[in-house]
Amino acid sequence: MVFSFGGHQGSSPSPFDAVDRHRLAGPNGSHPLHGVRVEELVRPNGVLLAGGISVSGPVLIGQGITGSIRVQAADNINARGAMLRLVGLKLVEQRHSTSHHNAATNTSTTEEWVEANGELFEQTPFTETPLPPTMAAGATFGTTFTVPAPRLGPPTAHLGEAIVAWAIEARWDVSMHEDPFVACPVLVLQNPDLIRAGVGDQGGLAMLDTYAAPGGATVSITSPLPARPGTLLGVRAQWPSAPDGDVRIELHRRTNAPNGVEGIVASASLASGSLQGGADVQLAIPPDCAPSFDGAGLEILYIVRVLVNRRFRNDAAIERTVAIA
Predict the structure, then answer these.
(1) Are the CB atoms for 279 and 318 separated by under 8 Å?
(2) What's the total number of domains in the chain?
(3) What is the dihedral of CA 48, 90, 148, 185, to 10 degrees?
(4) pTM of the prediction?
(5) Taking a C-beta distance cutoff of 8 angstroms, is the pair 293, 226 a contact?
(6) Which of 153, 168, 189 is the last residue of a domain?
(7) What digits encode the pLDDT tens for the residues 91-102?
């Protein structure tokens, strides 16, 4: 849904400013980024340049980005410099409010809304691919390039209430005028080897086949790790001292996004007493799950939670992290 709420609008820096700013805002309780796709954020061309950049498919964190630039100047360009660079965007929803006081009636009202604003958290230049700082009207330029992808991430991700996006950009720095540029989105995928190495909170315990909980309980992942969106997550839970009560095994999503929603993304129910000897379930991972990651000040974790619903008492639960890539 597209919101234009009370004249409010969000913002996103160039070259990630292709989406109308009114789409980045909505009323209190809304999530405007739910209707924004990562790939539609990048504006492919600025002023004075035709053509663009193309890259060869998605890349893994720590690998290389291969592509080409082909541009033609629509008018003379006389820049102080020109640079190929990798830029990373963090676009995050925030809740806002403002109060208005009517002196005539001595009443106050409060307006609440949500807006998403972005910042470039990485701007890595690549001087090994020279660009001509000046181009005459009608002149063309083309070259190929191979540059490193982000060494440690984060991956491209749509968390629902926040977005991490990457782009390769060629920008001409023109004094006192809008900078000409061309840009292309880059899909950066989580690297399973990075998770296996235990880098960040998405590694370590999240990659264990079996996690031993207090009291002799174990929670094991019986399907390959890291798990993949759109597949089944196999879980075996054994809890010899589990109390009586209806059992649920759940996959939880947890995030630190300011307007983020934490909750259950998959669940299976079992009968009371089923944990003592061990129980197996298959949890369907939604195909649009963002990968587990922490970076650029954002984090998303997935938790397998084994819960016993005890009547008239607090629930009993054990849990472990699980990596999704």
Answers:
(1) no
(2) 2
(3) -50
(4) 0.90
(5) no
(6) 189
(7) 999 999 998 888
